[in-house]
């Protein structure tokens, strides 16, 4: 049984549809990268895992199951228990995710309870200066604040860590250190990771599997080497082809043509059809169902045909990145 199972999840914000039947599985101990352009639904899906959506969000269909518990059907006390025992979250803005009115040590003690060793957990994220314990979040740098957020998220050794662009606001050197820290702590604790990111090379290096989102659905999923090295969905190929890691030195990057959709209801066909060079008439009015191509599950009417023809060409992420 999967640790996390998202099935046909539909989330609306007033007249805007953020998730349009999303499906996702994460197994125990697995690391899954969730990628896609801004507006694809990544953050909404990540927040839905812990029922952390804003009040404006409305679930109109589907379910989220974590450790056998139906997240959207739980009463408040059981939901709190699920979050505390099974889930950890690290968000993009570390300062905003911490309580500005409480010192760092006090916030960690709330997570750990009586007898918890605050110093030990801060030392695990390389914050062994006692002044950090007494500091307020605004007195820390962005990298230090994110390490505190990671220490809090991992303090109870959750079964699943949801990390939503946790290094996006950090400089390149700190970004690598923080990423190493998250994956190292998770590996030691046996924690699964759902890693939301725009950084395809980092996802390729660190994650077992990749799920690609577009128009509120997961349009391709499978082993990272296959999805990013031999994509089966035209959108995945276009997305990875626009990554700097995919281009030879001095080559011009090719952006994904057009703009992502803004849905007001269910997409009548394939949401990528207006931007897809391989679209045919049925793509405009018939929603694609999952098909298996090699080791990937793909939402594309022509996936098998295109894979046989090899129209996506050479690997779009360099082999050393996916090794």
Automatic annotation (TrEMBL):
It comes from the Bacteria. This is Nickel import system ATP-binding protein NikD. Belongs to the ABC transporter superfamily. It holds the Pfam family ABC_tran. It is a peripheral membrane protein. Keywords: ATP-binding, Cell membrane, Ion transport, Membrane, Nickel, Nickel transport, Nucleotide-binding, Translocase, Transport. One of its GO terms (molecular function) is ATP hydrolysis activity. PANTHER family: NICKEL ABC TRANSPORTER, ATP-BINDING PROTEIN (PTHR43297:SF13), OLIGOPEPTIDE TRANSPORT ATP-BINDING PROTEIN APPD (PTHR43297). The complex is composed of two ATP-binding proteins (NikD and NikE), two transmembrane proteins (NikB and NikC) and a solute-binding protein (NikA). It is found in: Cell membrane.
